[in-house]
What we know:
Blueprint: H1 2-17, H2 26-32, E1 45-46, E2 53-54, H3 60-66, E3 78-80, E4 83-87, E5 93-99, E6 104-109, E7 116-125, E8 131-140, E9 145-152, H4 163-166, H5 184-190, E10 193-196, E11 203-208, H6 213-217, H7 226-231, E12 239-245, E13 250-254
Amino acid sequence: MKRLFLLALVWAGLSACNAPGPERGSQTAEAAEVELPASDTLAAGPAAGGNAPTAPRKTIADYYRALTEPYAPRYALQQAGKEWYTVSELGDTLPVLVDAANGYLQLVDDGTGGGTIEVELALFRLASGQPMVAVSQKYYDGVGMQQELSCLRPEDGQQLDWTEHSLPVLTAYDFLQPGYEPEADIAEAALPVVVSLPRKGTTAKAEAFTGMQYVYCNDGAPEEYSAYCEVYKHLARQSIGLRWDRELGAFVVVE
């Protein structure tokens, strides 16, 4: 009797060992389907494997504050509660638009005493996830417009300024009718090209600024301005789209 009982126990143990279990790798496959949040500001949490916490991504405000010469605007970014602001050189408090979710920052200073200054920052991502921060400063004197625009990779340890690689060169000729080719200095003076950064989406807009038309084409303009005034009669388009390509790490022209 004891012998039969022992044989039954042995048989039960062998059956348990041979019972089918969960397939190897099934848990990993489920984990692979989980997507990370799309927001640019990720909350810190445990890294894969439960080790050290993952640092949150920097916001557009962080990148603005980290700018140094010659890229840093002359406006210090400050915060009071949920509101962002800066103080101009004349002592005026100016509101600052900080859209952290879309990676966009803008401030406008109308009280410079000589025109208007607009600062824009927009955050883009490379295919690797690394950031590219576009920094724009426009200077409008009431008639003419100038712009300084840089494309920076703040987390690239080898090179910060990637403007030549990331930004296609557009001139007044890109906005004029085919076959019409005025002298370069005349075309550039009449139609300076400026770029507006996107608050939403990843397509910037290059524009041919026509503010100087009033100077060159008014009734009292000198005769030598006639060649400049002629340029505006051959304007074929006002703007050109510049779509951000994550793989190339550059803007491409949208026809």
